[in-house]
Amino acid sequence: MESIRDKVAVVGMGCTPYGDHFDKTEEDLLIEACYEAMEDAGIDQSDIQAAWLGGAGTSHSLGHALQLDMVPVTKVENWCATGSDTLRNAVFAVAAGAYDVVLVAGSSAMPSIQPLAAPDYTDSAGDPWTMLIPGLAVGAFSTFATRYQHHYELSYDELKAGLGSISIKNYDHGRLNPKASLHKTVTMQQYLDAPMLSWPLGLHDACTMPNGAAAAIVTSAKLAPNFRDDYVLIKGIGMSVGNRAARMDSNYDWVHIDENIAAGDRAYSDAGITDPLKQLDVAAVHDAFSVVELVVYEDLGWAPRGAGGDYSQSGVFRLGGEMPVNTNGGLKSFGHGVGSCGIHKLYEIYKQLQGKCGERQVPNATLGLTHDQGGLPGIFTTVVTVVGARD
Asked: Comparing C-alpha atoms, which of 39, 345, 390, 376 is closest to residue 173?
């Protein structure tokens, strides 16, 4: 199987601030993000040959918002991995030579008032192979946290110290990002004293769910120098969709995510990465809950099994550490963004590799990673993307 490495480039990106946006529709947000991306790339709508959209609405939402002239727009839906899968589809279309210049966009437009009833995560009534955990997502992920504590023989205080260091880091990084939805200082004591959502996960272990949109202009590496000098190259993309076997497997340990490992291995192989903690400079990962980021550290080979919390507490993943993670504030502070989160993560890494992140800039960053993950414990879809500055 041929590698995607250095065949496709990102030459423009846009991202709205993430927040409530009560005065804006989904199309308003798409217009804002897409126009920033087109301006960044030095193009307009007439240059776009195809587009991919992740998030709410239909393909017509993007076509109407930008007044695209009969341009094919593909709607992508893949749980919380939608944003990165949207990019993945566009990247492979360009690599195949089907198009020269394409648009990738994603949006989140959550209603301002949502029902209190728990969502239904079941696919078909009574089928044990398709049944997911009913109830709120935090309840499902809290079982992952309790199992992690048991498996590695941690005390409650040790578990919370590790999880708290992740959440506080992301709050601290988010304060440096003007586009983040939260700009908040949280101490460890405030973290520990916060209301419990589903033991052992508290208020500060969960991400925010704001509205916003993000977009990217993608072209071939050959054409990229025609757009800008500081374009960013796709080095590798790995995607893995689980078959739900873990939910029926009594040997599954519930402290790792197979889909993360498989997607990471594929992306690393494409990109030629053999020592990710040493080779990667910056990453943006799916911290829907703090325990997810904790497990990602270990699944993607950045920390030994059971040591993710210790690595976090020692500052490895903070700005100024060995490999800063979620420099934009993560989903905790920047915001989730559902169908757009994989694209707004790429926006952060794109800007980091161009040296344009101001106070939160990682010095001399040349290689970065995004991680998108959708699902619940035992059944996930994961996309890992590695990008690098031009040589």
From this structure: 345
Among 71, 68, 56, 62, which residue's Cα sits nearest to residue 31? 62
| C-alpha 345 chain-centroid distance | 5
Q: Which amino acid is at 250?
A: S
**Which region holds residue 47: left if phi is over 0, alpha if psi is between -120 and 50, else beta?**
alpha
Tens-digit pLDDT profile for residues 331-343:
999 999 988 999 9
In a domain, 282, yes or no: yes
Count of other CB atoms within 10 angstroms of residue 63: 17
**Does residue 42 lie in a domain region?**
yes
Residue 155 lies in a domain: no
Whether the Cβ atoms of residue 325 and residue 293 lie closer than 8 Å to each other = yes
pTM of the model: 0.95
Lookup result for tokens 């087109």: 38
Residue 213 pairs in a beta bridge with: 107
Q: Please answer whether residues 313 and 294 qualify as being in contact, where contact means their C-beta atoms are separated by less than 8 angstroms.
A: no
CATH value at residue 322: 3.40.47.10
Half-sphere exposure of 388 (CA within 13 A, CB side): 19
